[in-house]
Amino acid sequence: MLDRVVPTISSLLNARAAGHSLPAGLYIRDDVFEADLDVFFRKHWICIGLECDVSEAGDATVIDIGASSLILLRDDDGVVRVFHNVCRHRGSRILDGGPTIVSKLVCPYHQWTYELTGELAYAPHMGANFDKECRSLKAVNFRSISGLIYVCLSDNPPDDIDELERVMNERLAPYDIRNTKIAYEKDVVEEGNWKLTLENNRECYHCSANHPELCVSFVDLDFGYDPDSLSPEDKAQADEHLALYAERTRRWEEEGHPSAAVEQLIDCVTNFRTQRLIISGAGESQTYDATAASSKLLGTMTRKDLGDTHLWGHNSWKHFMGDHAVVSIVIPLSAGRTLVRTKWLVHKDAVEGVDYDLQKLTDVWIATTDQDSDLVSRSHAGVMDPAYIPGPYSPFSETYLEKFATWYVDRMHAHGY
Fold first, then answer.
1. Pairing state of beta strands 98-101 and 80-84?
2. Residue 53 above 70 pLDDT?
3. Rounded mean pLDDT of 250-273?
4. Continuous segment of H or E residues that includes residue 399
């Protein structure tokens, strides 16, 4: 029997047809997964958390990305720092996963001890000639963009994150994300490839049939539709909504609230999109009745009718509203498993049960994330089937999937695949 020829990663990338989903191997193969980790989670900027994850001096938390483990902490002077979770002695992990409180970073193996600034303070039995100065913890390249922590594990991080920083510092200033707190956090492990998770998030073709809770406040028409498929009544409603959108965006911008879409999605390194979206129904927040879940608004916000400032990148999506924010971070675990970590933020002084109702705050996105997890697992099971053939994207409802697939292939080629 002849040996079956296994396509190279390059040939899989080259086989991707414009307007279609990716070949199965790009979703399910372990070698592709390792390449994805190297290219998109080590050499590109990724969001790993928030300043409010470490709100007080001595707060620290560990985030694992593939084989890399990172310590996000706040030092005694209130400065946020990110270090590799690797002792400079023989490489032991210093902290275990998750949040903790520390006065110093002490390696449990041989008690090498580091200040929260990263400097090596104590290394027993190393002799009088041992030089501590060159044994500080290895710092990680990071940017705090209005309180959102982005890191790049490469020694040569892409510089086009400057545009993301410029745009979002202005847009997020009124929300003052640095002065929020995490009211709730939930991890969901999806049984699917990270790219399927991202693809699912970048279209709302599936929303009306799968997300009844979200669709109370979220308008699926905002992400495309085929006008010829609508009834005259639905077409008139869609036209009315588009006119309202244009008028609302114009008025918001005139009032000093940047709202128009800004996209850096193809022919770039750092991938992002932001826009101020209309909230449907009561128009205040992404809750089960579209009214605010917290009476204490974020930052300097004084209005509940300023919509949803959304932001997505290649490993996160975020929604910022007057009363709260929702931040979801994607961390690949294997070719077929992906962690989605979601955090709900409120004003740092908001009191549960007094200023906000936790169930109302979280119900919609807990339900939506669970529903999406099921959809992603179905998609992954499908692309593993020998009958799978890449299918066509909707030219109306899945244009952002086409852009993501194009960007993905281009970036893989740029790194030699």
1. unpaired
2. yes
3. 97
4. helix 399-414
Neighbours of 394 (CB within 10 A): 15
pLDDT bracket for residue 3 (50, 70, 90): low
Choose the CATH number for 175-414 among 2.60.40.1120, 3.90.380.10, 3.40.50.720, 3.10.20.320.
3.90.380.10
Terminal Cα distance for the chain, rounded: 30
Q: How many residues does the chain have?
A: 417
Return the ∠ at Cα 355 (arms to 351 and 361), rounded to 5°. 95
383, pLDDT greater than 50: yes
Percent of the residues in the chain that have a pLDDT greater than 70, as a whole number: 99
Instruction: Using the predicted structure, report yes or no on whether residue 324 has a pLDDT greater than 60.
Output: yes
Instruction: Give the HSE-up count for residue 288: Cα atoms under 13 Å, Cβ half-sphere.
Output: 9
| For range 343-354, the mean pLDDT | 98
Rounded distance between C-alpha atoms, residue 367 and residue 339, angstroms: 16
Whole-angstrom distance, CA of residue 155 vs CA of residue 368: 37
pTM of the model: 0.96
Read off the pLDDT of residues 234-243 as tens digits, 9 standing for 90 and up. 788 888 888 8
How many angstroms separate the Cα of 9 from the Cα of each of 30, 197, 267, 331, 412? 11, 21, 21, 22, 9
Contacts of residue 108, Cβ cutoff 8 Å, sequence gap at least 6: 92, 94
Residue 318 near residue 298 (C-beta atoms within 8 A): no
Residue 168 contacts by C-beta under 8 Å, 6 or more apart in sequence?
Answer: 145, 146, 148, 274, 311
**CA separation, residue 394 to residues 20, 234, 400, 409 (Å):** 9, 19, 10, 19
Greatest Cα-to-Cα distance within the chain, rounded to the nearest angstrom:
85
The helix or strand, by DSSP H or E, that contains position 208, with its residue range, turns out to be: helix 207-210
CATH match for 46-144 among 2.102.10.10, 3.30.70.920, 3.40.50.2300, 2.40.128.50? 2.102.10.10
Residue 215: phi and psi, rounded to 5, are: -75, -5
pLDDT at 1: 44
* Chain region(s) in the chain for CATH 2.102.10.10: 46-144
How sure is the predictor about 109, in pLDDT bands with cuts at 50, 70 and 90? very high
